[in-house]
Amino acid sequence: MKSFELKNKRSERIEQGITALLILASVISVLTTFGILFSILFEAIEFFQIRSFWYFMTGSEWSPGVADSKFGAVPIFAGTFWITAIAMAVAVPIGLGSAIYMSEYAGDKVRDVLKPLLEILAGIPTVVYGFFAALTIAPFVVKAADYFGMDASFNSALACGIVMGVMIIPVISSLSDDVIRAVPVSQSNASLALGMTKSETIKSIILLSAAPGIISAALLGLSKALGETMIVVMAAGLRANLTWNPLEDMTTVTVRIVDALVGDQAFDSPATLSAFALGLVLFIVTLALNIVSLTMIRRFKEKYRINTL
Amino acid sequence: MTEEAIRQDNISSMSEQQSLPQEASEQKKSAFNNNNGRSSDNNIDNPFYDPTLKARHAKAKRFKFFTIASLVFSIAFLSFFLVDILVKGLPAFKQAYIQVEVNYNEKTLESTRSAIDRKYRRVVSRSWYRSIPLQVEKNPALMNSSQKVWVLADDNVDQYLKGHYYKLKSKEVKLIEELKSSGDVELRFNTSFFTSGDSKIPENSGILSAMIGSILTLIVTMLVAFPIGVMTAVYLEEFAPDNRFTQIIEVNINNLAAIPSILFGLLGLAIFINLFGMPRSSPLVGGLTLALMTLPIIIVSSRAALRSIPDSIRQAGYGLGLTKIQVTKDHVIPLAFPGILTGSIIGLAQAMGETAPLIIVGMIAFIPDSPSSIFEAATVMPAQIFTWAGMPERAYIERTAAGIIVLLSILISLNALAIYLRKRFEIKW
Questions:
Q1: Structurally, how many domains does chain A consist of?
Q2: Chain A residues 91-110 with a CB less than 8 Å from chain B
């Protein structure tokens, strides 16, 4: 009897130990987020101690290499915005269109073929997209612009944006497809019974019900586009160029981060530290987008009581 | 069936473009009966006639066409992309070789370029000249002999034979044509692409060192991410009480999955390299950085696998007096293991294609020799592709594309393996 109790106590202690270990493992993911935040934050603060924060947010000249270096990030933000906007203009209609076809028109068999096919697009490494953008799409854009009598750069924002858009299509289509299929059939049946055509039903009933999920998918795509690195590093320009013309070369936040950290400068030079300041902006913006997106999708799930999304 | 319902049915089936002729005629017949002899296509008399109907159907058709078009665009882009990469990359699996007379003697060891006849000097690869002393060292019998051997050709010869852009003088082009007619130049399978590391000489560069670097990095990644990921999933799914702390962890994991990968690189640089002083460019740092990125993928898929195990399994275990840990360890995890493994392989494939964070931690160094430990400087396959893509020589373009083909084949095999495992071991409860 005594030995039984002893064993029980020992195993109890072991069980407690294991539970503690499991909790520890779960905490690592939280630590990672804070690790990212603080590692960026501290270096960024160091940067803003030697350079003006105000000029960083509003200045329009970015010249880190020269003796009289200036760090005005507006042209970088503008370039990021332009390339992302082009990417979203490609990805949202096409991704949503594909999702609607797969969920509403295609049969189950066709869908089973199409969905993995689209997901191949998501599995392709971004460095491969970058190569494709730089060597195939960019020269094509230059030729096409030339045909219409316009001048395009080989590092045009348009070429990057298009390829980035294609990369984001599966992000949007996959999530939208799930969301559209989660809308109760009774809603669309009611609409069809009232004499709406299928397309009217989709547009004014199904998409409206699925809107939170679709917006959440688009925001997730947006955050992915903002943080995308390899495509822009390989196909976009390095020059901080403030322009409205998408045929010109532009640079993005991620390109400047890579450029600042790959060079041979000392780690505490303002040129290197500027990468962390840009990283901080990127972190805050994508974090906000992710949180909004995750909250919307959770509300959607609660509304329709879905656990599978 | 009232006429109204029939009409709606008709409309919806028309817009779906799949109205079966038999059904349609039946409906028409019943509509005829209900209307007391009024013809159904005489729309003016029909109280349900909608003058905009034609336009609405056209609109419905256009909308459907748009959805198909967008899908076709994605598929067309994918196929164009794959064809483009194959066309660019497949030639790199063949490499030009030239048969020339080689003299091995004291003089050639000093000035290797004098080993072959003057007129061939510019069409033979520079890397081959460098290997002459090594050849003699390996096989001393070669000394003071003269032999006809196949040697690696210069990259411009290679590009010329493949019909790409080349930089050769007309004299050299003539020479190649002569060699071609005498059968002394040929394209062979490019084994050195798989057996050598990176090189500044395009015809000599291969993907081996990057492959080894990738393997070392991914070993570190999986050793760290797999246990932590599975443990987190087990905790959240089996043990965690539904409180605020658990919710924070959950939101955090979802958020971590959507953070741009380059920011993980900044973390690796600031914490692993600068704070912990781990060696820069090493698979250790790269692997740890990738591990943090892969964690959310493994956690999410493992949780899904654990959730799919029915509660009856757990209840049966408790009923027999097992503790929670015993039930989880001996019953739930083994049953969920195929699902966990599938998710981990998909996470592995994603980590394998990741480039941006590795560039930040310095894994784009020029690595001619394969690394032998996780503390040495190394490069990984996607980073190698990135480096080659930036090289000025034309011959690197096809090597880049060839590297992409190798990388994509590995990724597709990994994903196929994951799908196979899922299909093979999936249990339908």
A1: 2
A2: 93-98, 100-102, 104-105
